[in-house]
Amino acid sequence: MPEVVVDVVLKPEISDPQGQAVLGALGRLGHSGIRSVRQGKHFVLEVDGEPDEAELRQIAETLLANPVIEDVELHLPTD
Amino acid sequence: MRIGVITFPGSLDDVDAARAVRLAGAEPVSLWHGDHDLQGVDAVVLPGGFSYGDYLRAGAIAARSPLMADVVAAAHQGLPVLGICNGFQVLCEAGLLPGALTRNSHLHFRNRDQGLLVERADTAWTSSFSTGQQIVVPVKNGEGRYVAADADLDRLEGEGRVVVRYVGGNPNGSSRDIAGVTSADGRVVGLMPHPEHAVEDLTGPSTDGLGFFTSVLTALVVAA
User: Fold this and answer.
1) Residues in B touching A13 (Cβ below 8 Å)
2) What is the largest distance, in Å, between two alpha-carbon atoms of chain A?
């Protein structure tokens, strides 16, 4: 069954305190070479039949992500 | 006057909101998110809580519930709508109010009595106050940081769309200390603090919150 992946991250101009907390933990663990962390969401959608890109893009941009604060990337299955 | 209070799965403050409506002198009407029926109410309150457990984003799934389609359509016809905390998040997710609410900058849930500066005393929900008045109501949220693009914030400020601003400290890192905003027509208002928890001396830090609920009665009388 085709799987469609949608990745959602906060826009660069929206501060990400969760990512910053992870970055702080990395520093305490001695990983000093990590410059920044942005935390996001990863959705995996199983689709019946041939994925409809327009419909999936609409789902991604209107429900899975809030375009006011988030950027979204749609990854369709490649044959 | 009949004021609807919507219950979503995970709403917590619907009973307090209904109580505030009653104390203000109106009749509260319980509305269920899954219905397509506003029951002819004169105004609607979206209460605080954690609808759908804040899954996906706070308010995101509740904003797509059946009744919200009716609320959005009625709001575009001028129905007064007040969103408190999770209700504010729902209104932003439904596109009735600009901006979004995100995780508090300090990552902690913050629960305290909060000073607010009333900057708009001419909306359907704030006419009982005066411009520049300071009030105290409880604030309690984990995802209450109001954000929008800088250009959008400039536009909102220019249009006078900020209704209340935090004073005496910003509890969640909200942009420009914004605690609540309104629609262009002043009929839809959302705020993170909880006026319904400040309506009686016994249980609240003040009775300042009652003003939100008495305001809408005035707005409805004027409109009638």
Assistant:
1) 149-150
2) 48
Confidence of residue B175 (pLDDT cuts 50, 70, 90): very high
DSSP conformation class of B40: T
pLDDT for residue B194 is more than 80? yes
Tell me which residue in A13, A14, A21 faces B102 most closely, judged by beta carbons: A14
Contact A69 B103 (CB under 8 A): no
Average pLDDT over residues B182-200: 98
Is 0.80 surpassed by the pTM of this model? yes
pLDDT value of residue B170 = 97
CB atoms within 10 A of CB A51: 16
The whole-number average pLDDT for the span B32-56 is 97
- Residue B219: what pLDDT? 83
The token pair that represents B126 in the structure block? 């704030």
Listing from the earlier edge strand, what are the strands of the sheet with B162-167? B27-32, B2-7, B43-46, B81-84, B188-191, B178-182, B162-167, B110-118, B134-141
Q: Does B85 qualify as catalytic in the annotation? A: yes
User: Is pLDDT above 70 for B224?
Assistant: no
Cβ–Cβ gap B148/A68 under 8 Å:
yes
Q: What is the pLDDT of residue A1?
A: 83
CA angle B172-B174-B180, nearest 5°?
A: 105
Residue A45 corresponds to which amino acid?
Answer: L
Q: Which residues contact B12 (CB under 8 A, 6 or more apart)?
A: B47, B48, B49, B50, B86
Is B157 known to be catalytic? no
Q: Are B112 and B172 in contact (CB under 8 A)?
A: no
Q: How many CB atoms lie within 10 A of CB B141?
A: 23
